[in-house]
Design a protein that fits this description.
The complex is a heterodimer of chains A (161) and B (761).
Chain A: E1 3-9, E2 12-18, H1 24-31, E3 50-53, E4 56-59, E5 72-74, H2 87-94, H3 104-117, H4 123-129, H5 141-155
Helix pairs in contact in A: 2-5
Chain B: H1 16-20, E1 36-42, E2 48-54, H2 56-59, E3 64-68, E4 78-79, E5 86-87, E6 93-94, E7 100-106, H3 109-118, E8 120-125, H4 132-135, E9 152-160, H5 163-168, E10 172-180, E11 183-184, E12 192-197, E13 203-207, H6 212-223, E14 230-233, H7 250-257, E15 265-268, H8 271-277, E16 280-281, E17 284-292, E18 298-310, H9 316-325, E19 335-344, H10 358-376, H11 380-387, H12 407-415, H13 418-421, H14 423-428, E20 434-446, E21 456-463, E22 469-472, H15 482-494, E23 502-504, H16 522-549, E24 557-560, E25 563-566, E26 572-574, H17 575-580, E27 588-594, E28 613-625, E29 631-641, H18 648-667, E30 673-674, E31 677-678, E32 697-701, H19 724-736, H20 747-754
Parallel strand pairs in B: 1-15, 13-14, 18-19, 22-23, 29-32
Antiparallel strand pairs in B: 1-7, 2-6, 2-8, 3-7, 4-5, 9-19, 10-17, 11-16, 12-13, 12-15, 17-18, 20-28, 21-22, 21-27, 24-25, 25-26, 28-29, 30-31
Classes of the chains: A alpha+beta (161), B alpha+beta (761).
Chain lengths: 161, 761
């Protein structure tokens, strides 16, 4: 049975009729066309489906549509502002942190959320903070480099988002 | 890179922007207003005769469009590359738990999953066989009745010199049996695709695939279609590593789309289905024996390699052959007896995985080299230097190395490395309850296909009417960045900024057949074809530019970004205006390249041997926790000879990613099967490395100049992974004084061995 839900999606209000038990990742990808959020495992193990819910990193493959109600949701499509890349995105590009790119949206979301909590992390803290997101291509080193670089960019007065 | 080259070769990846913003559309991202979901009913039994499939209950589900079985297939219903014997949908015999017995097409994903539960089938269980050596016994159940040699899928035997006599004359002989695990690719994008029959009656398949041209033939044959009425499109892949080197969703999707009256169909395996039905790295059991003289020179090698093919041929025989070809790794060994056996079992599908059989045999070789060094009382790097192949030497197959070979220099770099020089002090300062060790792993890896299979490519580079440059890629980009590299190569030749250029992803309607995205060939082979195509286009542009500028001959003009300029003057004409002067057909230039091969190697082994290799030498520093059995890789140094480095970042991506997968294979990755049942079901039980498991890595390049390669490069995609397991395993021996011969080196195995209880589990 469908129900009306309302939430803020990438800065814009959304109201939609949806089966509240549908997975949030399916609502985003199939109903709203936001295919930047990926599904890698469907069981909360890989982080590819990460989104920000009220600024906190959550896994949309183990969330229901009902859990979006009243929340501020940010997906990869809403991370940059006014056509500009977020500093985390810029650092991912510049530091070569992207290969196949399928984990990238989730990684970027995870990094944005992590740097909000810990704006001046050590390399080891980054390793721990990003360890919920699996990348099968890069070996992580350049991703850690990118997050380290993004932290410096944001501290240096860039648009931290 | 070479002097003078590199203006446009270096720089960030050109696909990074679309990927970092989530805009890139993968095969998994195809949706439309109206479409259906397709899904397969999997057998879940390892070996059985299929008696009947019951579809009526599923067909009665209101959300179901069609339920299809083998009877609905108009073609051969057989997949295969060398042997066509894998059913699209099982018609007679189920040979592994992931075999599909029916295909459901439904209006929603929910309806699909409900309907799949309603499909049932009758079967008569058959005895299964799950160990390759057991499978070779006369008493073993037969998996393919029509296979002439029981369950032996393929054998390779190579004998050189007089190994028996040479062993007798050796001062030291090391012997061991090693077992490597079944490794799951675990790419983030599981198998996915989209298909429809277009207005012209053409079946269009968009798939996450490394092999669009080969897929087209297989789809047509299996489904009974003319090849010209099948089109395959390969967008960027969300990872593949060999696991999408062939058919996954393509034929099932095609079959579904032929039965929906033009409505598109989506198929996207969930992780559980990907694990159940996808290919795995072939597990191997390897019996190794290596003999050396007191001075450290290797005299004789004898090995028997057993690779577990799983139930179908796919490319498993070629994988085993490649492993056998590399059984002696990068060393001079005059007397060898190498036997490789690829054997059918009722386990999971075997298939290509980064390294293509070489990581297994390299592990065996590097472990036995470590044991021989110990018996000789020699430094492990010194033993490797003494025996290192150099240009002009013959490898264990007897093939003379006529191309670049920087292996000795790779080993030499490790000898000089501070982590190696300072090893004793580092080991001595291990914290309480920890043991520290260093290990070496070396490797060679062939580039391209073996001699019998033409490793060639056809590139097309075009000047559009707008005066921009377009490159038609025919080799999918599974994440390694070759599409962007093709742009950079064309940009380098044409002196155009690659950021202004466009690459068209592989599409059998637009590109030209160029083989597969595999075999460490994507940049080497296709890149060479791009150079030729771009060179042809350069001539056409310069001729038209010279005419336009009213100067004599193409030597009087030069290409600059966006224009042709008269040399020594400011007069120029924009490429858009040049384009208008060239016939449409002449604005598109083709280039062809075939990788070097040697027909005389056809007598050595199945398909012949390779002649061109990349090399590497690795050093791992590890810490073993004697209380928990956990191994930490603390430092990792990889020295690689993959020729000239065209783009340092993209190069190091391959090095670092390979090391992470190699660490996973060495320490944790084990796809467990018991009697044909999949005991590993998801990412919670199949553990791959996270950011906490992989250290910062040192990647050093020995840039031998490979004169046949584009700007001097050779393949870098696969060579690196082969060094990791042996480097870590040799480091474990260095730390603890005992050897583990079954992999991965799980904490359970480590604790069991440290407690003197052998390698239980």
């Amino acid at each position: 049975m469908k129900r009306k839900i309302s939430f803020l999606l990438n800065g814009s209000p959304v109201a939609m009729e949806v089966d509240p038990s549908r997975r949030a990742v399916d609502v985003l990808r199939e109903d709203l066309g936001l295919t930047g959020t990926k599904e890698g495992c469907g069981s909360g193990e890989c982080g590819a489906c990460s989104i920000l819910v009220d600024d906190v990193v959550k896994l949309s493959c183990i969330m229901t549509a009902a859990q979006l109600e009243g929340r501020k949701i940010v997906t990869i499509e809403g991370v940059g502002q006014d056509g500009e890349l977020h500093p985390v995105q810029r650092s991912f590009v510049e530091r070569g942190a992207i290969q196949c790119g399928f984990c990238t949206p989730g990684m970027v979301i995870a990094a944005v959320g992590f740097l909000k909590e810990n704006p001046d992390p050590t390399r080891e803290e980054i390793r721990a903070g990003m360890s919920g997101n699996i990348c099968r291509c890069t070996g992580y080193e350049k991703i850690i480099d990118a997050v380290e670089d993004a932290a410096a960019k944001i501290r240096g007065g860039g648009s931290g988002g | 890179m070479r002097k003078g080259a590199g203006h446009f070769l270096d720089g960030p990846r050109l696909d990074a922007f679309s990927k970092v913003t989530g805009q890139e559309r993968y095969a998994a991202d195809e949706y439309s207003e109206e479409f259906f979901w397709a899904g397969a009913k999997r057998a879940l039994v390892p070996h059985a005769r299929l008696l009947a499939v019951h579809t009526s209950r599923a067909a009665a589900h209101p959300g179901v469009v069609r339920v299809l079985t083998s009877r609905d297939i108009g073609g051969s219903n057989r997949l295969g590359i060398v042997r066509n014997h894998q059913p699209v949908l099982v018609d007679e015999v189920i040979r592994h738990a992931g075999d599909p017995v029916a295909l459901v097409v439904a209006r929603s994903r929910e309806a699909l999953s409900e309907a799949l539960e309603l499909v049932t089938f009758d079967h008569e269980p058959l005895p299964g066989v799950f160990d390759p050596e057991e499978a070779l016994k006369d008493s073993a159940p037969r998996i393919h009745e029509d296979n002439g040699e029981g369950n032996l899928m393929r054998a390779v035997r190579v004998r050189r010199g007089d190994p028996d006599g040479a062993f007798r004359d050796c001062d030291v002989v090391a012997e061991g049996v090693f077992e490597t695990s079944r490794q799951e690719h675990a790419y983030l994008e599981t198998e996915a695709g989209w298909a429809r029959v277009d207005e012209g009656g053409v079946l269009v398949v968009v798939a996450s695939t490394q092999t669009p041209y080969r897929d087209r033939k297989e789809i047509a044959a299996a489904l009974g279609l003319d090849m010209n009425s099948v089109r395959v499109i390969a967008p960027y892949l969300g990872g593949a590593f060999g696991g999408k080197d062939g058919i996954t969703v393509q034929c099932l999707l095609g079959l579904a789309a032929l039965n929906t009256g033009g409505v598109p169909v989506k198929m996207w395996w969930d992780r559980r289905e990907s694990f159940l039905a996808g290919m795995k790295r072939l597990p191997a059991r390897m019996h190794y024996r290596l003999g050396a003289k007191k001075d450290g020179t290797f005299q004789a090698l004898s090995c028997r390699l057993y690779y577990d093919s799983g139930p179908y041929a796919g490319l498993t025989g070629e994988i085993m052959a490649m492993g056998a070809e590399h059984a002696g790794s990068a060393y001079r060994i005059p007397n060898v007896n190498i036997e490789g056996y690829c054997v059918y079992t009722n386990n999971a599908l075997g298939g290509p995985f980064r390294g293509f059989g070489v990581p297994q045999s390299t592990a065996g070789m590097e472990l036995i080299v470590g044991m021989a060094a110990e018996k000789l009382g020699m430094d492990p790097l010194e033993v490797r230097r003494i025996n290192a192949l150099k240009a002009g030497d013959r490898n264990c197959m007897g093939v003379e190395l006529k191309y670049s070979a920087g292996f000795y220099d790779c080993v030499d770099r490790l000898v000089e490395h501070p982590l190696w020089k300072g090893r004793e002090a580092w080991k001595a300062s291990a914290p309480p309850w920890k043991k520290r060790g260093l290990g070496v792993g070396c490797m060679a890896h062939a580039i391209g296909y073996p001699a019998l299979i033409p490793d060639d490519a056809n590139a097309r580079v075009e000047l559009t009417e707008n005066g921009t440059v377009r490159v038609y890629s025919s080799v999918p980009d599974m994440g390694q960045g070759n599409a962007g590299t093709y742009l950079r190569i064309a940009g380098e030749v044409l002196n155009q900024d690659p950021a202004t250029m466009e690459v068209v992803q592989p599409d059998t309607d637009h590109g030209l057949p160029s083989g597969t995205s595999s075999a460490s060939r994507t940049t080497y082979t296709f890149g060479n074809a791009v150079i030729e195509a771009a060179g042809g286009l350069k001539g056409a542009i310069l001729r038209a530019g010279a005419r336009s500028l009213g100067v004599e001959g193409i030597d009087s003009v030069e290409l600059i970004p966006g224009a042709v300029r008269a040399r020594g003057s400011a007069r120029q004409v924009a490429l858009r205006d040049v384009a208008a002067l060239i016939d449409a057909g002449d604005r598109s230039c083709k280039g062809y390249f075939r990788t070097p091969y040697d027909e005389s190697t056809l007598s050595i082994m199945y398909l012949g041997a390779h002649v061109l290799f990349s090399f590497g030498a690795h050093l791992a520093r590890i810490e073993v926790d004697t209380l928990t059995g956990r191994i930490d890789v603390v430092d990792y140094v990889a020295v690689t000879d993959a020729g000239r480095v065209l783009n340092r970042s993209v190069y190091d991506q391959q090095v670092q990613g390979s090391i992470a997968q190699g660490i996973g294979w060495a320490l944790m990755e084990d796809y467990v099967m018991k009697d044909g049942r999949h005991e590993t079901g998801d990412m919670a039980t199949y553990i791959v490395p996270t950011s906490l498991d992989v250290p910062d890595m040192v990647s050093a390049a020995v840039e031998s100049d490979e004169t046949t390669g584009p700007f001097g490069m050779k393949g870098i995609g696969e060579v690196v992974i082969s060094g990791c397991l042996p480097a870590i395993a040799n480091a474990f021996h260095d730390a603890c004084g005992v050897r583990i011969t079954r992999f991965p080196l799980t904490p359970e195995r480590v604790l069991s061995v440290l407690a003197g209880q052998g390698e239980k589990a």
